[in-house]
Amino acid sequence: MRRACLGAMVWLPGFALPAAATDGIAPTPEEVVTSGIEEVLVEAPEPLYAAPTLRDRIGRVWVPVKINGKGPFRLVLDTGATNSAILNPVVEALGLPINSNERSWLQGVTGNAIVPHVMADSMEVGDLLINRAKLVIVPDVFGGAQGVLGTQGLTDKRIFIDFRRDVVEIVYARGKPRPVGVSVSKFELGRGRLAELDLMVGGVRTRAIIDTGAQQTIGNDRLRDALLLRKRESQDASVIGVTLDVSYGQRIRVPPVVIGDVQVRNLYITFGEMPIFAHWKLTRDPAMLIGMDVIGTLETFAIDYPRRELYLRPRR
């Protein structure tokens, strides 16, 4: 049995959770309650690949990926997933055989499951070419995308996302200069090629994982306790992951989140002991997954894997 970790796919269907406005300001609790559930669906007929976080749309990053020379298929670019995944209709379109005797152990944000997988001869997007790629088969929880592109093959690449111009690039990082006019933050690679860094939340040192596959930012209970948020007004939130397991937490407005020279204010985080924190051994100290409600408020965002650097440019 093989293991795959798709720790990023998060959907909060209990009520509408519009993400932060273009200036980084999250909606008030009253706005959340009165908003319709349609506001959190990541569906659009237009071929958007890099959508900013707006009040009526969760930001997302989709990439056009060719599999076995066919496609392109529109996959979620997921820096919180160690493996790639596709939906059953993609498997059928590719004509890939499913070996009933082989299964993969899949870890998601809210639980784990044993799922089938297929082997593709190749996956290609930009400068990324993966030969003999294992693709786990998952339910459709992506709101229009056809699967997930994980971090496999990115160790010598740079991901560059320009939300203003709707541009997503995956290129070889060697020889590429740093972008101009950006905030630079160092990160480490751990837990299976995931970008991890230390940042500050209201003065609390917090371990964070950059998770472009997550719609919402999630924190563990240690972070909530350190921020003394137990008595702060909160809302019940339910979280469903790629395994379709449901976890429950509390959605609370937090002090400013500081990443390098960039400060995000008026952010709401869903707190709870999600199974992914235990899987990643992030339960003893303050920790969080930074989702698209934060990343999508930027103008540009880049991850340079060889340099272990994040490049952030706030929206003008």
Please describe the topology of this protein:
Elements: E1 2-5, E2 10-11, H1 29-34, E3 50-51, E4 60-67, E5 70-77, E6 84-86, H2 88-94, E7 104-107, E8 112-115, E9 117-125, E10 128-137, E11 147-149, E12 157-162, E13 167-172, E14 183-186, E15 188-190, E16 194-201, E17 204-210, E18 218-219, H3 221-226, E19 235-241, E20 246-254, E21 257-259, E22 262-264, E23 267-271, H4 275-279, E24 287-290, H5 292-295, E25 298-304, E26 309-314
Structure characteristics:
mainly beta, six-stranded mixed beta barrel, 26 strands, globular, 316 residues
Brief overview:
With 316 residues, this protein is mainly beta. The chain is built from five helices and 26 strands.
Q: Tell me, briefly, the overall form.
A: globular
Based on secondary structure, the structural category is mainly beta
How much β-strand is present in the residues? Answer: 35-45%
| pLDDT averaged over residues | 82
